[in-house]
Amino acid sequence: xxxxxxxISLEEFINLTGINEDEIAKEALIEHDQKTYLKPKKAIDLxxxxxxxxxxxxxxxxxxxxxxxxxxxxxxxxxxxxxIIETTHHNTQDMNDENNLLKDTNISLQEQCELYQSQIKxxxxxxxxxxxxxxxxxxxxxxxxGKVSNSSIGAK
Length: 156
Prior knowledge:
Blueprint: E1 8-9, H1 10-17, E2 29-32, E3 35-38, H2 40-61, H3 67-155
Antiparallel strand pairs: 1-3, 2-3
Helix pairs in contact: 2-3
């Protein structure tokens, strides 16, 4: 399931890093609700690749890096890592909520099971009692019919 709060919008990423949409591989993009997103880790990888390419080009040309470029690069990295931390915190909170729900469900099921076990035990005791009553009535019936048949034989 795609959760947009765990992703970086493509527009936000482009504005933050200055990377063109053409430079981003289509496999890295995620479509959701007619919007395009990137996973934070993939976004950082793309940005670091651009940063590495820029630094290599600067080194080859022997030019001095502008402080604005470095400042924006650091700012972009910090914002991307904040997004990852936020995503991790959100995922952790979701997992904790899910674990608590499962724990509560498990406790409820255990209580229900104990209730059913006590009801079964009570029904078994009732069944044993009824079987004893039936056995008693059978013996009583046998004795009564035995006396009746004996007295009818003796009366003849």
